[in-house]
Design brief:
CATH architecture of chain A: 3-Layer(aba) Sandwich
Radius of gyration of chain A: 17 Å
Oligomer: homodimer
Largest interface: A-B, 43 and 44 residues
Largest sheet of chain A: 7 strands, mixed
Number of domains of chain A: 1
Low-confidence stretches of chain A: none
CATH superfamily of chain A: Class I glutamine amidotransferase (GATase) domain
CATH class of chain A: Alpha Beta
Structural class of chain A: alpha/beta
Order of helices and strands of chain A: EHEHEHEHHEHEHEEEEE
Chain lengths: 231, 231
Amino acid sequence: MNVILASTSTLYGGNYLEYLKDELISLFAGLDEIIFIPFARPGGISHEEYTNTARGFFSRLNISVKGLHEFDDPVSAIHTAKGFFTGGGNTFLLVKTLHDLGLMAHLSENIKSGKPYLGCSAGSNIGGLNMKTTNDMPIVYPSSFECMGLVPFNINPHYLDPIPELKHNGETRETRIMEFLTQNNIRVIGLREGSWIRISGDKITTEGSENTRIFEGGKAPYEYQPGSSLL
Amino acid sequence: MNVILASTSTLYGGNYLEYLKDELISLFAGLDEIIFIPFARPGGISHEEYTNTARGFFSRLNISVKGLHEFDDPVSAIHTAKGFFTGGGNTFLLVKTLHDLGLMAHLSENIKSGKPYLGCSAGSNIGGLNMKTTNDMPIVYPSSFECMGLVPFNINPHYLDPIPELKHNGETRETRIMEFLTQNNIRVIGLREGSWIRISGDKITTEGSENTRIFEGGKAPYEYQPGSSLL
């Protein structure tokens, strides 16, 4: 496989996908067109406007972008595509739409056969085994929480360390993930903003500017430096 | 109805339920026993330990507490109960357990017929129309997101204002609720910690120390002072 699952599309103070530019030139090397999957975006901007945002960035890499919503037959579009990018937004809406349209398995099959895939935030959640470690609000009810399983674990994008000065009684991210582990025997990769997971052939590594926090049942959480294997 | 739906069980720096004590004396006036519903708590502490926490507080009000998990026939226990308290934790786990055991409708029926009910956090979420405005992580897959509808709107407990200094790209609470409104025609009550909703007869008001933030489709969010009607 040839995959990037990124914590976020945009770093604080940065431009859209800018921090990933060199990696994306490598990921999509030799491609002149990819399909953008805009389904995570719950309004405010339309699928077309959201696709235009991706289009703007990829034009600088001489890669044209088609939105999956533009096709009458999205299953066929996935099978004829050269590569994919799923943008962030609300994971419940993204997973519901992919299941409702019967696309999750087709997308997974095409990525597992080697087509390059970029996911950001919600688009990274669907690379995990299931979406049960998303941070998003359950604004719609998906027919299933199951995802593509490009990696043998779950992802928590936008991983956020506890904020000591916050006088608030809501659970920290770490507490939430530890609660997940009481109900599921699945490793969770907490991806801080600035980090991404790289699948290249049979290797899976954590990359980027930040350490990555790993959660497993029966262990204290621990950290991996960029470049570490996640297998 | 005779109901309190509280944002949180515990204020920062305070003790369990302490800030609600006077209200709870009024809510449960004349009762010597209530049933505690501990199902939101995903491990770390058992149902029995969690029930003991509630028991410790209510003993000071001369009210004894039985955990719903103690009964072989929880449906019958709900129908013979005098009042209820559902504690916080993970809303997905709470709603899944209530639906799996077939208890949601029985609980709702008993509260709507006048038995006093206290919900905190996840226990307040289930008083809304559905759980689609919870902050919790979807660690389990409930058979439905539908809840009791004690109030004709949804609740967002632990409502948190944006933190301007946070250099993080995750969505603010307000953004998440606005995304909910793109998919659902349901009013959302953002309950800051220190606030609660009081149903007393045919009145529904917001109470406590904080203003309450209201979200409706097609309107800018607005605020209500304590004592305002939510009808």
